[in-house]
Amino acid sequence: MKFENKTAVITGGSRGIGLAIAKKLASQGANIAILYVGDESEGIAAKEALAEYNTKVEQYFCDVSDFNASKEVVDKVIEEFGGIDILVNNAGITRDKLVLNMDEKDFDAVIGVNLKGTFNMIKHTYKHFMKKRYGRIVSTSSVVGIMGNAGQANYSASKAGIIGMTKSVAKELAGRGVTVNAVAPGYIGTDMTNALSDKVKDAMKAQIPAKRIGTPEDVANVVAFLCSDDAAYVTGEVIKVDGGLAM
Description:
Elements: E1 7-11, H1 16-27, E2 31-36, H2 40-49, E3 57-61, H3 67-81, E4 86-89, H4 104-132, E5 135-140, H5 144-147, H6 153-173, E6 178-185, H7 191-194, H8 198-206, H9 216-227, E7 238-241
Helix pairs in contact: 1-9, 3-4, 4-6
């Protein structure tokens, strides 16, 4: 199995794209540390959803925007799993508004979780990966980080920042056997998009050359490739998973 005896930390791993990634990696032998916020039942449910793969799975409550809390969780995972091989930065939030109506809290919250949270997790695993001379870091950006989107200045900025961070850290760690990449999903069928009306969904599909909304599994498949040794010579890349939306 591709990820046998490897441990993956997945932030925002209790649902949606994060859970799909966790399932994909676990199905190929990875041990999984799920980081989540919110109700504990959600973390427990995610752990139970991975039970069929017979790998080690633990869930950890962690607000990744908190520098110290992120370090504590990373240290705990290393202690309990014996190390970390893969980091998937997937935690993210939205606070969509036009800049005219966006207040400072809306901006800071999104930057804090999406961008600073990604930095925090990379920062706290950085030395560990350097010492191992091995690691895979994959962060979830977005096509709006490439092309922008009205009403999402904060979200777009956070996702564009992830792209810049990915390329910079990739250059820092390439000589240590650590690859650092990002995926940029387009419209993906998650709890947020599933709540939209059929009219809105149809309008979204009309913009996509592939004529369908993507699935979390579409993203998970690309992340799994980037986490694997098949992608050992791929670093500093941003792969769009968007059905051609941002061509």
